[in-house]
Write a structure and sequence with these properties.
405 residues; alpha/beta; Aspartate Aminotransferase, domain 1; Aspartate Aminotransferase, domain 2; 2 domains; 4-stranded mixed sheet; 15 strands; 17% strand
Length: 405
């Protein structure tokens, strides 16, 4: 299978991890050779309830027996779409009362940008340096890392960048700005948390100049930081909210959410302002509904702070320079990218799945399922500490300190 993987399937990196997957359940992934891997990645923050959660699988099977795709999004009344949208709205501020379901977080970003331009009749978008909002041409235009997009220029014009957490840069938001789009916690940049009052200051400036605030909660949402969405911790409400990843419980989904008055502008001038064939697919929506219900009715969000504290307590080591992030969205920072890579690859050999971040190459991602147990956290951290001990005491450690690429 691995030979065919390389032969027939397009690759996104020169050296993929290339584990041959047989099955996955809970916090574990199993390969075809029978080896079990404790998963601290969770599909890059997507498997909110772990792998193959029964509650999601049952919802998928039940919907499959009724109908799958029947019509493009927004034309037929389909119970899974309506129920998921209603439950989201019931747990959001009053101005976020209309949901547009999409295939992915990237598509949700595209829809949000289009809505902002339609609402303001402006085209300038302000994003943050080292931001990541998806990988389509539009989303890439507001990505704040030139290395990832220079080969694909020209992209969509009219984008400006500010430095995340820099209050002086707020003055760049002015009467020509359609929207400011920010991640509530910067992901690819290294899990950077907004400083106290920063997002509120951004929103105040947006209101002053007639711009909109779009918050990207594709990764930080769905309970990952202890609230359904991280903006609740920041005491600020966006004009447009983007979600995805963890909403599907392992299935592909996204959504952008705003007020019904704003969303109504997609209905005319032009009609069909944003359309999608498979967005809100009934089977995927059923999975999302089951996932969201479990997040809201279980004790998972209440356990996040204690699980974060356990990680921080156990992961103390000379190699770790800093632990960034919040809740179950944590990043270990090392001296060099080379050390981070060795930690990931050596931990893999010992049955622990870790991964890189997009732009902060000195970081190692820890984003397990919200359902991970304390025992699994302890086991994974033990593997990590043993891995780092071996690296720290090895002959290659000095050379790793010198490797910065």
């Amino acid at each position: 299978m691995k030979k065919d993987f390389y032969k027939y399937q397009a690759q996104t990196s020169a050296n993929p991890l290339a584990l041959e997957i047989a099955k996955a359940k809970g916090s574990y992934v199993y390969t075809t050779d029978g080896k079990a891997y404790l998963d601290f990645i969770a599909g890059v923050s997507a498997n909110t309830l772990g792998h193959a959660p029964k509650i999601v699988s049952d919802a998928i099977k039940k919907q499959l027996e009724k109908y799958t795709h029947v019509m493009v999004y927004g034309e037929f009344v389909q119970k899974p779409q309506v129920a998921l949208s209603k439950l989201l709205v019931e747990n959001l501020p009053a101005n976020l009362n209309s949901v547009y379901l999409t295939n992915s977080g990237t598509e949700a970003t595209e829809g949000a940008l289009k809505l902002a331009k339609r609402l303001t009749n402006r085209f300038e978008i302000i994003a943050a340096k080292n931001a990541y909002h998806g990988n389509s041409q539009g989303a890439m235009s507001i990505a704040g890392n030139e290395e990832t997009k220079q080969a694909f220029r020209p992209l969509i014009p009219g984008t400006k960048f500010i430095e995340f957490n820099n209050l002086e840069d707020i003055e760049k938001i002015n009467s020509t700005t359609a929207a400011v789009i920010l991640e509530s916690i910067q992901g690819g940049a290294g899990f950077i948390i907004p400083e106290k009052g920063y997002l509120k200051a951004i929103k105040k400036r947006c209101d002053e100049v007639g711009a909109l605030l779009i918050l990207d909660e594709i990764q930080s949402g769905m309970g990952r930081t202890g609230k359904l969405f991280e903006f609740e911790n920041q005491e600020v409400t966006p004009d447009i909210l983007i979600t995805g990843k963890g909403l599907g419980g392992g299935m592909p989904i996204g959504a952008f959410i705003s007020s019904s008055e704003k969303m109504a502008l997609f209905q005319e001038n032009p009609k069909l302002g944003h359309i999608t064939t498979f967005g809100g697919h009934p089977v995927i929506a059923a999975a999302g509904l089951a996932t969201l219900k479990e997040i809201l009715t279980s004790n998972l969000m209440n356990e996040i702070a204690a699980k974060e504290m356990l990680f921080r307590k156990l992961l103390i080591h000379p190699l770790i320079k800093e632990i960034r992030g919040k809740g179950l969205m944590l990043a270990l920072l090392f001296e060099t990218p080379a050390i981070a890579s060795v930690v990931i690859l050596k931990a893999l050999e010992h049955g622990l799945l870790l991964f890189w971040l997009l732009f902060e190459h000195k970081a190692v991602r820890i984003t397990p399922a919200l359902t991970i147990s304390n025992e699994e956290i302890e086991k994974g951290c033990e593997i990590l500490i043993e891995t780092m001990d071996a690296i720290f005491c090895s002959c290659e450690y000095v050379s790793l300190l010198k490797e910065n690429d």
